Amino acid sequence: MLVLFPSEDDTGTLSNVAKDFETARYYTIANIIEGTLADTKIKAGYASPPPPSFWGPALSRMKIQAVVVNNISPDVEGSIKSSGIKVVKGVTGLVGDAIDWIADVGIDEFEEMINLKNSKQTVVAAQKSQGQQASSPG
Question: What is the pTM of this model?
Fold first, then answer.
């Protein structure tokens, strides 16, 4: 499985997942075969982000099967998904850690765990916000 990660730098697995997909300085492509990282490739980002319609066909030609991101615009996400490529959002930390996790559990379970982690963080943030509002003098 070929998985593409927007990366903060050109160190591959040692790079952090970039904050935004479209403006990433680099992209790390991981080739995961039968639960093992076979190799990685680094691609330089674009001087100015291509239009949303570029992404789906371009990644499809590269045989990318999943894109793992922190943030992505809805238009770019739609272009990628319309080409049959999975998009997993809300991922932070080292690219290598995400690759290890995907290799261990597969992309579908990885996505479920990320969604669960992010929904828990949302609940905690909402609870903190409500607690602050409730304790505010008024």
Answer: 0.86
